[in-house]
Amino acid sequence: MSILVIGVNHRSGPLSLLERVTLAPDAVPKAVTALSARDNVREVAVLSTCNRTEIYAVTEKFHGAYADIRDFLCDLGGFPADELHPFMFAEHDDAAVAHLFEVAAGLDSAVIGESEILGQVRQAWEVAQAEGASRLTLNLLFRHALGVGKRARSETGIGRGTASVSHAAVELAVDRLGDLEGRRVLVIGAGAMGEGIAVALHRSGASEILVANRSAERGQTLAERVSGVAVGFDRLAEAIGVADLVLTCTGSGEPVLTSDFLSLARSPGRPLLIVDIAVPRDVDAAVAELPNVTVLDLDDLRDWADRGRSHRMGELERVRSIVREEVERFELEATALQAAPLVSAIRERAESFRRSELERYASRLAGLGDAERDAVEALTRGIVAKLLHHPSVRLKQQAGTPQGERNAAAVADLFDLD
Asked: Number of helices and strands (H, E) in the chain?
């Protein structure tokens, strides 16, 4: 049994490729179901964010599962395997476990220590559970991963300062503009990212915040929270026409802002900064060619974050130490799980013997009252439990070792277990 992770993330491939394999939240359950149907995938979870699309699987055949997942990603992105291979990464067993733990801890994020990823890991696990695709092994893996993420943020300073992509996007804008005083800012999208952006803008002193969202009610709720103004998509051109800064993070899957739209909405001489953190991108590439319009995307955000991460570098080794420790703990628990089916089979066989003997002596016990019958039941159950306790503990402790394999084989033979 192997744990495998295959995918594309901000470290392995360019944004132009990553956005082709990004899944919208409502598409993840279908992807999990499709992957579960592959011959070599026993358990599976899909983690798809603005920085990564990674597939975690449990398999008995590494190469078969690798091919299944690779083909899924190729179909998703619409490209041949030789185009995907240079940008796809794969890890298995300990390395796959360590990778997920580093992701949950914020070590693998574009903004080191960002907090949003922990919720995204939890959501990926919850979807896999809901689809029946996360069982014994992945449940243990993701439970540990969430624990690692919490430990990293409570025991180290990895999450101090800028701790989310949305907050970093605002800081990048402030870095470019100097400050937000007197600036009119438009936020397009009122989801989790949009909420983070709006809150960060409010704290940064933005003079006026406009919130545009397809769902008017959700946009209104967010606007009220940051003392802003909600605008419908029918007034998007009007809002862009008066904005100094636009931050966009919808999940539309296609450009929301095109060059033709902006040309009609804005005066050519009016400067505009656009920060697009959506994947796929909300802003068409041709917009960057318009006069007085500057477009920044996740690639620019990552470059900016790289320059500003020095204050967290001292915490990295402390977090990596937590990851190494938790990988070892996971290995021990996962190994113990390997013995669980054998221990369960022994107990089931012993229970069948116990019941058989009680049935054989049923006529002799017929005169017992309820209290006496309960006493016999408790006595026989206790004897079986005490006899099997030490062997069960030893089998779990020695699982995965040569001695454990010899003991397991001997037990299976002695108890005539298939």
From this structure: 16, 10
pLDDT of 344 above 90: no
Instruction: Fill in the DSSP letter of residue 207.
Output: S
Report how many domains make up the chain. Answer: 3
Poorest-confidence range of 44-58, 144-158, 326-340? 326-340
Domain boundary among 306, 328, 361: 306
Rg (CA), the chain: 28
Give the tens place of pLDDT for each residue, 301-337: 888 776 656 656 678 888 999 999 999 888 877 776 6
Contacts of 391 (CB under 8 A, 6+ apart): 346, 411
Rounded Cα distance, 127 and 178, in Å: 42
Terminal CA-to-CA distance of the chain, rounded, Å? Answer: 19
* Active-site annotation, residues: 50
Rounded mean pLDDT, 176-189 = 90
Domain's final residue, options 306, 322, 349? 306
Whether residue 321 is contained in a domain is answered as no
What whole-number distance in Å separates Cα of residue 185 and Cα of residue 198?
A: 9
Asked if the structure places residue 205 within a domain, the reply is yes
Yes or no: say if 283 and 276 are a contact pair by the CB < 8 Å rule. yes
| 250, 190 contact by CB (below 8 A) | no
Cα(278)–Cα(274) distance, integer angstroms: 12
Do 196 and 157 share a domain, yes or no? no
Kindly indicate the confidence band of residue 343, based on its pLDDT and cuts at 50, 70 and 90: confident
Tokens of 325: 């420790």
The residue with tokens 């470019």 is 176
pLDDT on residue 127: 97
- Please indicate, yes or no, whether residues 44 and 155 belong to a single structural domain of this protein: yes
